[in-house]
Amino acid sequence: MDALHGILALGAAGVAAAWAALAAECPRREGEIRLVVRADDMGACHAVNEACLRTFREGIVRTVEVLVPGPWFPGAAEMLRDCPGLDVGVHLCLTSEWDRCKWGPLTRASSLMDRDGHFRPMTRQRKDFPPDTGFVEAGPRPEEVEQELRAQIEKARRHIPRVSHLTAHMGAATATPELREIALRLAREYGLPLEPPALKPFRAWKGSGTTPEEKEQAFLEALERLGPGTWLFVEHPGLDVPEMRALGHPGYANVAADREGVTRVFTSARVKEAVRRRGIRLLGYAEALK
User: What distance in Å separates the CA atoms of residue 44 and residue 82, rounded to the nearest whole number?
Assistant: First the structure.
């Protein structure tokens, strides 16, 4: 724990090297393959909450990220109190991406809101979106960003005391060097690591047009390629139910079917058997960085 506090006291320039040094000191079996499977966006809707917990209880997920401003955060917090073994991170949120389901800042900070009081939908302005829908281009004031992220961390800790780390929803909270420094400063202050770079990320499939069967096969092949070390796989479980079918935004209308496929992969008997056969150790962020 002393080593962890020392890392959190560093600036951005030294944090990656320090995490790598701490990782090298942790006792591990030689040649062990370790995998952190992360499920994002609890709090966005009830179907996401249900899917995230299903992928933990019945599958390979060991870490979930919670959107504190999300409309279903209270439900997520209640459900997580009944899952004490599941690692939880604060998914620092400055965007609200769906067309028909919106949320906004806890602090009501004017530079973070659109004219309806919601977060803007995208981290950066996209050509296929209306004007003033990019967070970075809207010119968020640094002091309001810090106040908002601080409010999210403190609310999360009130309702889910065991939160262990911070991540950035859609990358917005770390989208520029100035924003990243704010997030790192809060990480140091609260003793919650920010997306530790000692974990090696990988992808298994490309795009939202892949079927559940294609996702499963791609993930199985990715598992076979993993070598020793600590790996990170990030995805978004969901359920193909009316609540999630009502979500979507330009370019992503099939969100419910796509994210149901993620849930099926994470709970797949074939995937669980491959993890067992290869001796892959599943763990959450907190365990990976002890």
Answer: 19
List domains and CATH numbers for the chain.
Answer: 2-288 (3.20.20.370)
Place of tokens 């390629």: 225
101 to 45, 55, 186, 217: CA distances (angstroms): 9, 23, 28, 32
User: Are 135 and 175 spatial neighbours (Cβ–Cβ below 8 Å)?
Assistant: yes
Closest CA to 194 of 173, 217, 212: 173
The span from the CA of 118 to the CA of 52, in Å, is 25
pLDDT score at 29 = 62
- Going by the DSSP 8-state scheme, the letter that residue 241 receives in this structure is S
Q: Which of 143, 173, 137 is nearest to 65 (CA)?
A: 173
pLDDT 10s digits, 209-231: 899 999 999 999 999 999 999 99
**Token couple for 282:** 């599943």
pTM of the model: 0.88
How many H helices and E strands in the chain? 11, 7
Give, in order, the Cα–Cα distances in Å from 194 to each of 80, 122, 199: 21, 21, 12
> Closest Cα partner for 164 from 135, 196, 122?
196
